C-alpha cells in the first residue's frame, strides 16, 4: 500500500508545531486523507476486506486509496475526498495554498514545494493580528450588548409609564371634543341664520372665477391627455433597435411615473371636460367649489409638469442621428408645448393667477364673542388630541424598537437609528441566514429600467464600524461590506493571548478587512 | 438634463388616494409591455425591389399557360474541355440576334470530388459584375475531374447533351439547350434540376439615362391612351400593370422607412429555381429561428408567406418560427429522401431570398411527421427559388451519394472547422457585464467554492474605456494582466469583446491610426468615411476588404499593442453583421463603398466573416510559438468554420428559445459550421431556475457551451438558485467535462472530413423516414442521442429510438430497444441521453476545476456492444493548443470490439510526423476503467495478455443484459493493446 504525506490544512499547521506535523506524516498506520478521528472507520475485516462507508460494496482493503473509485460514495478514496481541499484539486497540476506541504500534488507531474514554514510564520502573524482585532472587537461588542440590554430595559420602563398615562390623555381628548362639538353647534346655528344671503352674494361674486377655473381645468385635462398619449405612442412605437439611451430612459421614466400614480390609476380618467358639477356637492359653498376646482387643476398641472419634464428630457437628449418617427413626433409635441408652459408656476404662460377676493368677514354680524369661544375650543381640542397622538406614537415607536431583532444578545441596538445612507433603500427587511451577519434592505427608489434599489449588507468583525466596499453586482442591487464589532466573537473576559483558536465561529473574511480599508470609499458614520 | 423630476413625481403621487376614490373609468394600462421583434424595421420581400421583381417573374411564369423559359444555350457554342463545359446562354426575348458578344457566358465544371459547379455571368457587361466571393470563400483551387472520368454522350434528338461522370461513373448530367435546363441524376435517379420551372432571370447591367428616357415615353403613351378611352378595360389594364409594376419595382432607387438606397448601378439581380426531385425534406440556409426541415413559403397551405431571407442583421429580440433574416447567412441547402441525397451551395454574399414550395403530394413534414402513419410511396419534390441582388450566378451541386460524401465535397471547397483550442469546447461563463476585477475574482472563487468546473470568463463591452476596444476601464480593472494570471494559474482563460465599430475619437489610438491609414468604409461618394452610430456613439467601420486594413487590424492583437492582454486572453467579435444603430435595417447602407470601389451590397453577408478571419489572424500572429486562436463571432457565412466559433445571437430566456436552439444549431452544423452554441439561459430576461437548469442540461450538448445574460437581467451564476438547482447544474456541467475527450475527438473528425458534430437524426439514420423532420432530438457524433427538455414541469419525455439496435442511458445504463418512440423518465436532474449500441466513447470521469486540470487524468471507455457483440470508437489527443498537430504531434487511435476482443489500433499514418514530449506523456496515461454495456452474459474473465483483470457485472435496469465494469486493465491510451472478454 502506498502512503502519501497527509495534506496539512492551514489551521492544523497553526495548531501544531511543524515538527509534530512532520512526525505525523511518517505514521505508517495512517491512511492518506483519513483524520485520526476517522481512523476507526478504515479498518480491514478478518479477510482483509473493507466495506464502503455507505455499505454499497465490500472491496479488498488494498483498494483503498488505489486511485480508482470503487464505492459509489467515493469513500474508498479518502485521499481524494480529503476535507481540507476538494477532490477535484488533488493532482490537478495546481499547487493549492490550502496544502502548504504540497501534498495535494503527488503524481509527480509537478512538484509543489513545502512552504509550511513560511506559511506558518505568515499565518501566525495573521492570526495574531486577527486575535488583536477580535479582542478589541469583543470588548466593544460587550459594550454594545450592555448598551443593548440597558436600552431595552429603559425602553420597557418608559413603556410602562406611558401605558399608564394613556387613559388619562384619552379622556382629556374626549372632553375637549365634546366641548368643541357643543360650541361649534352654537356657532353654526348662529351663522345659519344669515347664511343664505351671504352665500348668494358670495356666489355671484365668485361666479366669473369659477367659470374661468372650469375653463382652466378643462384645458389642463386636455393637455394632460395629449401628453400622456404622446408618451404612450412613444413607448409603443419607438424603435428599440436604435438603442437610443435617452429614449429608453424617457420611456422608462414615463413607466415609472405612471406606476407611481398607483395601481388602479388610469391616466385617462377625469379627462372628460367638466362643467363644475363634479366638484360641487349639495350644501357646499361657492368658495368650496372654487377651491375644489383650483385644487383639481393644480393636481393635473403638477402631473403635466412631470410629463413636461420627461418630454424635455427627451427633447434635449434624444439622438438626432436617427429618424425615428415616434421620437420625432414626441419631440415636436415637446417643443410646441414647452413654449406654452411656465414650469415654475406649473401653469400655462397665458394663465395669470386668479385674484379671488376674500370672503368679507365683516358681513357676519356680532361674530366676535362666539367666534372667539369657538377658536379656543378648537385650540384646546387640538392640544388634547396632539398629546394623545404623541403618547400613542411614542408607545408605538418603543414597541417597534423592542420588536426589532437586534440579534439574540441585543448587540445591534447600538447601531439603531445611526445614519446609514443606502441610496434610498432604507427599509430594513430581514436578516439573511441565522448568524446575524448579513442584513437585507429593500424598497428603495425604483431604478431606471430596473427593480427597486436594495442593499445586502455583509458584516465582518472589526474594531470599528466602517463600510469597506460597495459593489453593484446587478442593476440596482448593492452589496455593502462593512466591519463592525457587532459581529465579533464574544471572548471570555479572562482571555489569554495564546488561546485564539477556541473562540467560536470566526468569520472567515475577518482577515481581509484591515487590508481593504484603504481602497474603499468612506461612507457616512454608522 | 431634466429639471426636478423627482420632486414633481413625489408631489403628484401624493394625490393618488383621492384619484382612486373618484375613479370611474378603469382602463387597463399594461405597463412594461412585453417587447418583441420590431418586424417593421426589417424588409419584407414586397419592400425589396429585386425580391419583388423576381417573385413577380415566378408569378408570371405560373400565370402563363405553357410557360417556357426564354433562356437557351446556343448548341453550336457548347465546348467540353478539361472538365469544363462552356457555351453561350441567350435570352431569346432580349438577344434577338445572338452573337458571342451578347448574352450570358455559361460554364459547367466537373470537379474531381464528384461535385459540379455552374456559373452564369454577363458576357460583356458595361462594367464588371462583382465576382470576388469565390476568392474569399473557396479555400484553394479545386481539382478538375480527370479527362478519363467523364464522357460526353451524343446529343439526342431533343437537343439534350448528356455527360456521364464520377469516380464510380454514378452521375449523369443532362444539359437541355432549349429551354435551358440541367438535370443531375445519381445512379440513374433524378435528384437536382436547375431551371426546372423556368424561373431563371438575369438582370443585365444597363445605363440609367436610357431607362429614364424609356420610362418617360411609356408614361406619355399611357396618358394618351387614358385620354382616348377612359373606361374601357380598366380592370384588365390595372391588373396587368400591377404585375408589370412589380416586375420593374425599385430598379434605380429604393426607399425603406427614412432610408434611400441609391443603387447607382441599377438593377443587377438574378434568380433561378432549383428542384430537388423525389425529395420532400430540404434543410439548411441558416440562420433562421425555425425548424430543421424547411417549411414551404409558397403554395397552398404554406406555413410561411415570406421567402427565407439571407441578410446578416442584428435583430433585437428575434421571434421563433419565422423565416426572417438573422445574424448569419449560409446559402447551402441539402435535400434528403430515402432514395436521394443532394445539396447545393449558392455562392453569393449579397442579399438573397429563397422560396420553398412543396409538391402537392406532401404537405406534412415538420417535427411531428414521424408520429403519423407511413405515407404511401410517392415521388414528392421540393421546388426552391433562389434570388440574389448582385454578383454572378455561381453554384455548386453536391451529389453525394451519402451525407458523409456531401459534407466532404462541400467542405473541401469552403474549408472544414479549425481544430479549436481544447479549453474552448469546455464551459464558458459570460455576462454583460462582469463589472470589476473584484467581481471577476469573486465569480471565479464562486465556481471553486461550489466545485463547478469552468474554463473561460468573459468580459463584455463595459470593461473598456468608453467602448474603445483594446482599452480597459482602469477604475474597474486596475490590473488586467494580474487578473488573467490569477485565473490562468488554475488553467482558466479570459475573453474580451472587440467589435468592428471604432469610436470616432482622435485621442483613441485605434481610431486615429485607422484614419491615417485610410482603412474605413467609405460613403457612397467613395471619398468620405462612413459614419454611423453604435455602442460608443459616432463610429466608423473598418473595411476588411482593404488588405492594408486586415494586416493592420491583425497587428492590434500583439501583446505590446493590446496593453493588458496575455496569452490566456482571447476574443469575441460581436455586432459584425455589421450592426449600425442608425442605418437601414440596423445595418450599414448597401451603397457604401469598400476598397477597390466595390459596393457593400455585393459582400454584405461576408463582412462579419472578413472581420472574424482578420481577428483570428491577429490572435495567431501574436505568439512566437504557434498557438491556435479562439474567436467567437456573431455574424457568419460559408467558411466561417475556418476562423472560430459562432453563437445564435441575442436569444430570450424563454422555453421557446430553448426549444428552437436545437434546430438552429443543427442547421448551422449542416451548413458547415460545427462549432456553434446558443446562449445558455437566454440573453434577454430572467429564466426561472427550472428553465435555466434545463438549458444547462441541453447546453452541455452544444458544441460551443456558454452561459450569457443581458445587463438588465438578474445574476444567474449556477450556484445562485440554491438546491436542488445548484447540484443539478453542477452535475450537468461536470457531465460535459467528462465527455470532453469524446467532443475533442469529434472536432478532429470534423476538421478532417467536414462531418457535423451535432447531427440531425436523418444524418445517422438516412433510411428511416420517421426521423426526416425530427429536430427535437439529435445525435452527438454517431454515438450519443440527446433529447432536450424544453417544456416546464416535465418528468417524462418521448424519445424516438432509431435503428434496430439498443440504446443505453448514459447515467443509469437503462436499455432501450429501437426502433420506435418510447416515453422515458426525464426528471428534473437529467434529460434523456443515450449511447448507441456499436459505439465506444472515451471519457474522463474525475471532476476538476478546468479542462486544463484534467490533462493528466486517466480515461474510461464506455463500450456499448451491438447485437453482434461489436463496437468501435476513436480517440484523438494532442496538446490542445498549438498547431503542432499539423506536423504529426498527436495520437489517433481506433478502439474496436470484435470476437470478444477489445483492441486499440493506431490510425495515425506512419509518415505523419513525431510526437512531442507532452503528447508522449498523454499517450502514457492509463485507461482506468472499461464499462461494457449490452453483453447478454456477464463477463466472467477479462484478460490482458493472459493477465487477469478485475471485472464486476450487474444486470441493466430495463432488460436482461449486463453492465460490466473492468477495473484497472493497466493499458495505456496511446498504445496498442488487446483485452479479451470471456
Automatic annotation (TrEMBL), chain A:
Residues 1-23 form the signal peptide. Residues 385-490 form the MRH domain. Residues 513-526 have a biased composition (Basic and acidic residues). Residues 491-526 are annotated as: Disordered. The keyword Disulfide bond applies. Keywords: Coiled coil, Disulfide bond, Endoplasmic reticulum, Signal. It holds the Pfam family PRKCSH_1. Residues 116-193 form a coiled coil. This is Glucosidase 2 subunit beta.
UniProtKB/TrEMBL annotation, chain B:
The keyword Transmembrane does not apply. Keywords: Endoplasmic reticulum, Glycoprotein, Glycosidase, Hydrolase, Signal. Residues 754-841 form the Glycosyl hydrolase family 31 C-terminal domain. One of its GO terms (biological process) is carbohydrate metabolic process. Residues 418-746 form the Glycoside hydrolase family 31 TIM barrel domain. InterPro entries: DUF5110, Gal_mutarotase_sf_dom, GH, Glyco_hydro_31_C, Glyco_hydro_31_N_dom, Glyco_hydro_31_TIM, Glyco_hydro_b. Pathway: Glycan metabolism; N-glycan metabolism. Pfam families: DUF5110 (PF17137), Gal_mutarotas_2 (PF13802), Glyco_hydro_31_2nd (PF01055), Glyco_hydro_31_3rd (PF21365). One of its GO terms (cellular component) is glucosidase II complex. Residues 106-355 form the Glycoside hydrolase family 31 N-terminal domain. GO terms for molecular function: alpha-glucosidase activity; carbohydrate binding. Residues 1-36 form the signal peptide. Residues 860-899 form the DUF5110 domain. PANTHER family: ALPHA-GLUCOSIDASE, BCDNA.GH04962. Belongs to the glycosyl hydrolase 31 family. This is Glucosidase II subunit alpha. It comes from Mortierella polycephala.
